[in-house]
Give the backbone structure.
Amino acid sequence: MKKLLKKVLPASLILKLLGIKPSINLYFIRLFASNGFLASLYFTFFSSQFRREHKAVLQGRLAYARSLKQIGVSCVLLRRNIHRLEKGLIMQPRRKIFAEDYIGETVNCYLNALNSKELCTEERKWATDVLAAYFSVVGSSKLIDAARRNFQAVNSPLQGSESIPYPHKTLPECPVSYQQLYTLFQRRRSVRWYQPIPVADSLIQQAVQAAALAPSACNRQPFRFYVVNDAAKAATVAQCAMGTVGFADNLQCVIAVVGDLSAYPDERDRHVIYIDGALAAMQLMLACETLGLSTCPINWPDIEQREQMLAQKLGLAYYQRTIMLLAVGYAQADGGIAFSQKKVTPTLIKDVSKD
């Protein structure tokens, strides 16, 4: 249609229409932004910007349902509910009866998970230990007693230290001062120019091990790191994003932080992948810095053509959403770094307690 209009309409009229287009768009936005129903109509008939998210969320819900029947290396429902039990165990004061509304679901999921040949040993042990701790302190009710019997009928505790809540005082002493940490933050800059030196897989694994310690809602950790540790392939992946023109070809390694919407049964949690994924990505970048590696977070725009392009290269399911790309490598000593003046502290703090 656009090509046809360009052929039919005079160039002067086309320029005039382009000039008033922003004003027309703003008029429609004002009209449709007045309430939620009109906003939904706008994105139904005038913009397809959220179409991928809508489909991805629904595809994720279907994948979530499948994951409860076909448990693999990890089970998202088990992880969520075991973490909920942990929070009940550390509650002050702890209630005599708690988790009654979901303990049956949790034990049934646990028993199903035990039959999985893929479930990782650490997750199985964590679930076993927390359930054992729960049943040792919780009171009695019909629902809890039934779940207790089902759990105790399976004699599958694993050997080793217990994976249960512990006192804060048992944490290791903090080995770094604020100034040392601040210096690390100062060193962590967005580096775009790298030496042609391969990145060892072992270093990536170490960084991911540190990133995995980032906080995550209900400990579901709905993300994975797709590593492209080959200079030629890394360049093609980086070129999928906007903003890499001119420096993509010198990247040695690119990591895609990918969120997984199959971790949730409800739409309300659809943004958690971005929160949890970003928290883990920040720890990954800081860990890389301590290992002598520099990084650069690459913005990932929500553009359908580029989503398809990257999904094809990485082999992503529709319910997997790319959160960001990260360049990783050894920085060129003379490579330029943007100064990027950060906002001063007073502009970032709003003390609402004084309002």
